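A reminder from the course coordinator: this example appears on the midterm review sheet, so study it carefully.

Given structure:
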C-alpha cells in the first residue's frame, strides 16, 4: 500500500525555498554568456594572438576569434573558474577545424609571413611571432599547444587526431627549426639556460617572451580592417 504523507504548508514552503536556493547557487557557479563576452573583451589581445599563431593568417585569425566567441556563448555549463581556459580551448578547436593541420602534416614548404598579419603584434614580439608563423601547420599547432598553452602530449594527440609519436616528432621539428631561425644560443645566459641544448633554449625563450602576453591584455588589438 502506498502511503502519502502531507506536509504542513509552512514545511512545504521551506522545502521549496531550499530547492530554489540550491538551484540558484548551482546556476551561479557556471559562467554565463555575459561572463564569456567579458572574457573575450578583456583578453582580446591574448586570444587574438593565440588565433594568429595557430591559423598563421590575419583573416583566418579573425574568423577563428569570432568562432571562439560563438562556441563559448552557446550555453555550455562551464564553471566560472574554468571559463578562461574554456575560451582558449574553443579558440584552439576552431583553429583546428579551419586549418586541419593533421591533413597538411606532410607539407614542407612554409608560407612567408605577411606584414599585414603583424599589424597588431607588439614590436617586442615580432621576431618570435614570425618564427612561429613560418612553421608548417602541424608543427605550429603542436608547438603553440604544448609549449605556450601547456597541453600534454596526450591532450594534443586527442585534439589533433594523431598519435602521440606524431606529436612528439612535430614538436622536435618545431624546436629545431626555431632554434636555428632565432639563433637562441646567444641568449643562454639571460635565459638562465646554461648547459641546455638549442631546442631546450628555444623553448625557454619563447615561453618567456610570448606566453606572458596570452593571459593578460597587455596590448590593444582591433579586429577592424
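Designed residues:
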Amino acid at each position: 500500500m502506498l502511503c502519502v504523507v502531507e506536509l504542513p504548508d509552512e514545511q512545504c514552503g521551506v522545502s521549496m525555498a531550499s530547492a530554489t536556493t540550491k538551484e540558484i547557487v548551482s546556476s551561479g557557479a557556471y559562467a554565463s554568456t555575459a561572463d564569456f563576452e567579458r572574457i573575450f573583451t578583456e583578453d582580446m589581445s591574448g586570444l587574438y594572438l593565440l588565433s594568429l599563431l595557430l591559423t598563421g593568417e590575419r583573416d583566418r585569425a579573425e574568423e577563428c576569434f569570432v568562432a571562439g566567441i560563438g562556441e563559448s556563448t552557446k550555453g555550455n555549463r562551464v564553471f566560472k573558474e574554468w571559463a578562461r581556459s574554456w575560451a582558449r580551448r574553443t579558440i584552439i578547436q576552431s583553429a583546428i577545424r579551419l586549418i586541419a593541420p593533421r591533413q597538411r602534416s606532410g607539407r614542407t614548404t612554409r608560407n612567408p609571413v605577411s606584414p599585414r598579419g603583424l599589424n597588431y603584434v607588439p614590436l617586442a614580439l615580432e621576431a618570435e611571432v614570425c618564427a612561429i608563423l613560418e612553421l608548417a601547420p602541424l608543427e605550429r599547432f603542436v608547438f603553440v599547444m604544448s609549449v605556450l598553452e601547456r597541453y600534454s602530449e596526450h591532450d594534443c594527440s586527442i585534439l589533433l587526431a594523431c598519435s602521440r609519436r606524431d606529436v612528439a616528432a612535430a614538436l622536435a621539428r618545431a624546436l629545431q627549426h626555431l632554434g636555428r631561425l632565432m639563433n637562441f644560443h646567444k641568449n643562454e645566459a639571460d635565459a638562465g639556460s646554461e648547459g641546455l641544448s638549442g631546442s631546450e633554449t628555444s623553448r625557454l625563450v619563447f615561453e618567456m617572451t610570448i606566453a606572458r602576453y596570452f593571459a593578460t591584455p597587455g596590448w590593444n588589438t582591433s579586429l577592424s580592417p
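The CA atoms of residues 6 and 12 lie 9 Å apart. The chain has eleven helices and no strands.
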